[in-house]
Amino acid sequence: MTSRRDFLTGAGAAVAASQIASPIKAYGSNKKFRWKMSTTWSPKLPILQESCELFADRVNDASGGRLKIKVFAGGELIPPLTVFDAVSQGTLQMGAGAAYYWAGKAPAAQFFGSVPFGMNPQQFNAWLADGGLTLWEKVYSQFGVRPMAFGNSGIQMGGWFKREIKTLEDVKGLKMRIPGLGGKVMAKAGANVVLMAGSEVYTALERGTIDATEWVGPFHDERLGLYRAAKFYYYPGWHEPGANLELIINETAWQSLPADLQAIVRLAARDVAAWVLERCEVENGPALKRLTTEHKVELKRFPDSFLKRMRELTKEVIAELTASDPLAKEVYSSYSTFQQQIRRWAEISEQAYAESP
Ligand code: CA
Prior knowledge:
This protein has 357 residues and is α/β, with parallel strands linked by helices. Helices cover 50% and strands 14% of the residues. It has a 6-stranded mixed beta sheet with strand order 7-6-8-5-9-11, covered by helices on one side. A 5-stranded mixed beta sheet has the order 2-1-3-10-4. β6, α6 and β7 form a beta-alpha-beta unit. The N and C termini lie far apart (62 Å). 41% of the residues are buried.
């Protein structure tokens, strides 16, 4: 074994000097990579689409231009919901979106997007660091895709309703746009759940094609103009206590990157993930104030009876999902074990602090 002293003199010194003279060469590659990324977001979706551009800039700067990523919004290159397939097949090296879009391919994917009454961003990220990411990689590896966390909206709002929700009867027959597991729960409660792209939501609500919709939080909802189409703005976002976003990478393309570029991608993804949550926090407070003061929106809390019922129905929806898919069962077992482990801690820390007089 080479001692530290030997390393600083003799043969070791020559190696060290060559690394200083040519740090890139030390990784065995000067090769330039030109990649494409498509997102599932509309071109003007603030924060989410912006974060992908920011990511490409960060990677370009940190790699000295060795890895350049050209970013396309949903629909510019390919339709938004074909991004996963394109990355899986290697047509594109990278994509960005949310895991629940791929529920039809892998039911287990939904636990890496939004889980009703699930974990908040800080808890979810802790789970990823404690085994969740390994499971996520396992779910996507069937498709030759590698996932990374890519930001979080924070807890969302419950949505926009044309009529008040006073009892569970008001949910029956309600035409609502609400995707993912939350949509399945609302359907069980008797709502008529409608699936539609974000670009159609405002018009549908304004024209009365739907009676209610959820979107994101005050900032994104204000941008979409939803306050002009419905008066009642409900909280809390029981269906999305944190919507995790994802970066997806074609596995073969990933393996073709030298170790330093892989490290740059990982670090830039973490940096951008933090930026997304920060921006949402920065923007939501002022946006909520504008909605309630300038736009005269009526802020409403869902009745306890509604939230209690949604929690019960969530258990049923998840029980059905995990019974039908072994991988979903494995992932949810890890997710729920982690959530239970930290519940007491959350109660006496964040919750107690929020409720203190
Ligand atoms: Ca949402």
